[in-house]
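Now for one record.
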Amino acid sequence: MPLFPQTALNAGVRKREVFGWAMYDFANSGYTTVVLTAVFNAYFVGVVADGAAWGTLAWTLVIAASSLVVMLTLPAVGAYADLRAAKKRVLAVMTAACVLGTAALAGVGRGDLALAVVAVGVSSIAYACGEALIAAFLPELARDDALGRVSGWGWSFGYLGGMLALGASLAWVLHAQSLGQTAESFVPVTMLITAAIYAVACLATFSLLKERAVAQPAAAGDGFGASWRRLATTLKQVADYRDLAWFLVCGACYQAGIAVVITLAAVYAEQAMGFKQADTMMLVFLVNIAAAAGAFGFGYWQDRIGHQRALAITLAGWIVMTLMAGLARGPALFWAAAVVAGLCMGSSQSAGRALVALFAPADRRAEFFGLWTFAVRLAAIVGPLTYGLITWLSSGNHRIAIVSTAVFFVAGLLLLARVDVERGQRRAKAP
């Protein structure tokens, strides 16, 4: 059986279009990998904040504020894109904003707090919007019984893009360090590398991906006013979509834990484990390799055993990972925890996207993925802020903070039991 069968795709969808769709994951993964996970977060704490005690909390506050903006605007942006069949056009705007915001980070040096906050805020908001919009294309491309594997194709390909951006950045860092340069010299260049890869790789997406949606009658309304009314109607009907509602709450819990790993992995590695910049980048590179393998392989298994059971297994894996990281006193156990984190990250992210695709009505896909991103952004506020507050209250004890993250995964596992996938799928297909 071929790894990429045509039978996994909807009628009229060609493999090259799926490649174009997956290329967006390839393009934007460098942003999370380099900016949020491996390089700029530690640079923000150590250089921009000049190593001050409030640095970690300040970073989490910046991420929280941008997530709040996304929560307040993205569901309506999704409704707007659905009503006007404009997912691709809005995606182009968000992509440009993220690329420019990332490039602006190259101008951030020691003490440039204002510029760092604005550039991170703009880029992370645009990234989140783009992530939701590209996900809304998934049910247009894949058959219902192949959502897991097609979602996994995108996620695994995305991690390869993250590795490309991180690998190119790591090569530059090692070269710069060999010349005696400091982080203030080489980190800005990694931001330009990341922005350039994002800009070039996403060209395939806009060349190959089609907008299949058709503008709806309400699009003749008053701009975003019609979108907000559409969103208000969906929120009033949330009881009819109770499995989606339960999954949104479940996702907000376990994504809070994932947000801690994404935004604070480098900080933990340097502060708790004593890693240097190059060591941390190698660690994140390993995580991306494991995540790519997890997303790709798990997607096929997920379609066989069911999305709900597959996600439950990954959440159990996340709980194990947090305990391993907290107990690690030497590099061996910590590197093993990183591999577990990568495997769980790829598979859990892929499974979550596939479940939302099952629960989304055909005429409200961008809107429903906007609601999913609302939950993910809420998690991006709660998770990192909780971590930051715990480290602050415990006088910088990062081990207590990482172990406490297991609570989010336990809560997600318990809430997942309330979701009935078949019932949620039937509701999505009902008039």
